[in-house]
Here is the input.
Amino acid sequence: MNRPMMVEVPIMVKAYEVDCVGIVSNIVYIKWFEDMRHYFMDKYYPYREMMANHVSPVLVKTTAQYKAPLTITDIPIGRCWMEKLGKVKWEMHIEIESDGKLCCAGVQNGCFFDTKENAPTTTPKVLLDAYREEGGQ
Here is the structure.
């Protein structure tokens, strides 16, 4: 399975992210998706550099499929990769698993925005180059 630009990080379940019986709230997965996208950008095109170039990613859509519950005692791993990266649009896939069990799978779609021109812009070359180098098509 080809997963270009994959980033993997451990996730710590916090007490405020669970309900009264210790199950992670569904909305927390969406927060973790956002965290994963930030880790991804830190690795491939840090926000400080993007903003200096007047570029920002824009999230258009997030979907999540909840597969199995996580509890406060689990030690999940977050994984994301760029499934599709075109001249204008991107599609990132995200998984949260624990002990080899997929707990949540999601997709985020977006584009890039020129903050100086206040308009959508093309995907930064640094990301397109990394995507191709890591087997993206």
